[in-house]
Amino acid sequence: MDERKSKTKSTFLLRVLPQLILVGILSLHLVIGAFIFQCLDEELAKLRFLDVVFFEFITISTIGYGNISPTNDASRLFTIFFSIIGIPLLIVTLANFGKYLTKFYWKFQDFLRSEDAKSKLASDADMPIWVILFLYCSTMLFGSMWIDHNRNHFTVDDIYFGFISFATVGFGDTVPKTDKISEIIFAALYLGWGVVLTTILFNVFNNYFHRVYYLGRRFKGHRDVDVFIGGECITVSQITSLVAQQFHAAPREVRTILQELDQLMEKSVETNQ
């Protein structure tokens, strides 16, 4: 029993550690970047340090409100360099948070003894769309009450500001107020969480559209194809049945995953992370 607990803890740490490292690198990137920005740009130097960090976050999240921007050639060139590193770093970090949130949902369902939770965990399935929409609407409601911006509260402006920001469109006509340090922190957390939810939502929509693309298209003759594993000959159909049995999934569900090998490899990498 103790060995099982220690193994579970070590597995958990191995999965969480890369994300913690990413968060640490991202934080260091923002702090060092803010210091350099204030050294290069006199206008940015007049701002509070956290204001510059928030400007960096808005930049690498590609929201880009435009209310704060570099004002000389040196800081503009540094913005390019900073963004080349920061944008993919933030995307990976937030995408991982979205993946962990999805896995947490299915683990919670498994804890509640949901019938298909284990198979969903095994197949790295998406979170149900109604759950995502509920979280999305709840976040919007939270934002309308606690996140201050330069438009009217408790109106369409709240929804508009939230979606335009979460989708990283950021026209700049509606921006969050960041007069207080608490407002900066809340705004950054709110926007980061919103981008995570939007990533999950768009990924689900993308998978639905992908299914439409494959409507009426099936693999033919693949079930009886022989594959040699460990010196033994086994058919694809037998492999499908064994995998389905191992992960308590229907063979049809396994075949659906096998429709595109690129997706299968991507899911395998994500599962092992």
Could you walk me through the main structural features you see in this protein, from its secondary elements to its overall organization?
With 273 residues, the protein is mainly alpha-helical. It folds into two domains: 2-213, Helix Hairpins; 226-272, no CATH class. 70% of the residues lie in helices and 3% in strands. The chain is built from eleven helices and two strands, in the order H-H-H-H-H-H-H-H-E-E-H-H-H. The protein has helices spanning 2-40, 42-45, 49-60, 73-111, 117-122, 129-146, 156-166, 181-213, 236-246, 251-257, 261-272, and strands at residues 226-229, 232-235. The chain has a two-stranded antiparallel ribbon. A hairpin with a 2-residue loop joins strand 1 (226-229) and strand 2. Helix 1 crosses helix 3 (49-60) and helix 1 (2-40) runs antiparallel to helix 4. It starts with a helix and ends with a helix.
